[in-house]
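Practice problem 4.
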């Protein structure tokens, strides 16, 4: 299944501007563009000349932003035994085609599985569990926004152990609190929780070893060619993404809450925020 890139270039502009609290007028003043030209870029009317003037003001990589606007690159599709991405619709105002991801990580020998986030519904994950004849052991939450916990109760109800873990700073009924830097072994996997808040108050990402490549379940901290909107703390979100995620080995698979799976190497090379 091919999952489309979550954000257009104008979404990247908007997220950076909101995070930096820069109005269109302030951007026009700083970039030398007029207000009409700035608004045109934000409305999706791309001009490379104007984008190259605006990107540095927003702290964005100019060449990567231009490449995103031209749709000249997309991440390689990930095929990793024991890793399954469940993509489901999550339409919002202005984004009728939006979707959200949850993930199953499973031991290919014992068939024991762990779910990371639940999306808006448990059913896509349950379909995969039935099709692969998996044994769900636990559920992990990266954060508790509604599009990531919509299927939580139903999914935990079928988990053999009823184990559920999530960020201590974002308590959720039925979830055991995890602190950053927590480590555990489950279903033959080594799982390490790292703090990647900024998009949300206490967001965690989970680094998992035990498949053919290391993987990072990152929630809305980082997307392919973008990142989650960081109204909580934009600078903290950028810092965490750089220090906690993009510092991982280059072959690490990044499993975001929206859009396609990608890798550390690919995001270092192509993400306009970095």
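Answer key:
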């Amino acid at each position: 299944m091919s999952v489309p890139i979550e954000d257009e270039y104008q979404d990247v502009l908007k997220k950076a501007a909101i995070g930096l609290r820069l109005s269109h007028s302030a951007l026009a003043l700083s970039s030398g563009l007029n207000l009409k030209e700035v608004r045109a870029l934000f409305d999706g009317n791309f001009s490379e000349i104007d984008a190259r003037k605006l990107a540095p003001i927003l702290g964005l990589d100019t060449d990567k932003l231009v490449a995103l606007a031209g749709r000249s690159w997309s991440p390689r599709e990930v095929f990793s035994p024991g890793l399954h991405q469940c993509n489901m619709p999550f339409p919002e105002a202005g984004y009728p085609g939006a979707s959200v991801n949850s993930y199953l990580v499973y031991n290919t020998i014992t068939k024991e599985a762990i779910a990371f986030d639940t999306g808006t519904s448990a059913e896509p994950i349950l379909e995969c569990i039935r099709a692969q004849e998996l044994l769900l052991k636990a559920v992990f939450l990266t954060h508790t926004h509604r599009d990531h916990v919509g299927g939580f109760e139903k999914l935990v109800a079928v988990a053999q152990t009823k184990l559920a873990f999530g960020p201590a700073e974002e308590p959720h009924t039925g979830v055991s609190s995890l602190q950053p830097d927590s480590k555990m072994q489950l279903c033959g996997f080594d799982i390490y929780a790292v703090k990647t808040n900024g998009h949300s108050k206490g967001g965690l990402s989970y680094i998992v070893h035990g498949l053919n490549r290391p993987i990072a379940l990152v929630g809305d901290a980082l997307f392919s060619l973008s990142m989650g909107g960081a109204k909580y703390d934009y600078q903290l979100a950028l810092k965490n993404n750089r220090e906690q995620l993009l510092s991982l080995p280059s072959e690490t698979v990044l499993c975001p809450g929206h859009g396609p799976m990608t890798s550390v190497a690919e995001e270092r090379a192509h993400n306009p925020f970095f």
